[in-house]
């Protein structure tokens, strides 16, 4: 028996190649050919087309202080002085007394659920942090991406750390989810950049650039997905060819994603941080028979 694939009825096949490139559709990929790795462009070529995120930052956290208990006995206070300035202070555990003030971006993904990102450190010691905070239940998931040496090259590492707002209960790490498995999704990051993802299993995605600076590039990557809400997941992928790791929230109810890429630009020996959002279209979904 063969898998069953269902095409999203809201996206007729005739529209896939007929709509203009500046609309919510994507250009045809019929003429694209395999692109050898040695000819892949630098990450900077991709950045030029993404531009600035289209969603405005939220100021809902301004004036608030969030104390988070993390695994390992560390408590960190986060004070939001303005819509762009965040100060953190370790109030208990290893590193107690350490502090820093950074520029941050916060997006209210859904009511009471915030995506918060900021960077600390410089050059190869830069850390890019993403906090997903649910004010309703107090659960916090933080992703810490940083650079490591691997086989003589600068590569990426991302650690996921679970926490809970002080006074809201015990720490409950988020469960991995297979919600994305079988879905084929188009992400439009700007008028010029569009990518297709096919979620093969709970930890593997196949992708291709269908429009933009990386047009024709494709690969298969390792991923993780965590449950966050109904039709809402925290998603992570790490790339094999380029030193790129991404953390985002994918919302199928609002048909969008919000996140960032963090990577190393070999041509300039600099860290690259790319905040983004996208509009998404579920193109199809494949289900497998029991036998």
What best-fitting shape do the alpha-carbon axes yield?
globular
How many beta strands in the DSSP annotation?
A: 17
Distance between the termini: 7 Å
Kindly state the percentage of residues in helix: under 10%
Order of helices and strands: EHHEEEEEEEEEEEEEEEE
Radius of gyration: 20 Å
Percentage beta strand = over 45%
Short structural description:
The chain is mainly beta.
Would you write up a description of this structure?
With 291 residues, this protein is mainly β. Helices cover 5% and strands 53% of the residues. The strands form two sheets. An eight-stranded antiparallel β-barrel has the order 10-11-12-13-14-15-16-17. The chain starts with a strand and ends with a strand.
Descriptive terms for the model:
single chain; 291 residues; mainly beta; eight-stranded antiparallel beta barrel; 2 helices; 17 strands; 53% strand
List the helices and strands and how they pair.
Layout (H helix, E strand, L loop, with lengths): L3 E4 L5 H6 L24 H8 L14 E6 L3 E7 L4 E8 L6 E12 L2 E8 L6 E8 L4 E12 L2 E13 L17 E6 L5 E8 L2 E8 L6 E12 L2 E7 L5 E8 L4 E10 L4 E18 L4
Antiparallel strand pairs: 1-17, 2-3, 2-9, 3-4, 4-5, 5-6, 6-7, 7-8, 8-9, 10-11, 10-17, 11-12, 12-13, 13-14, 14-15, 15-16, 16-17
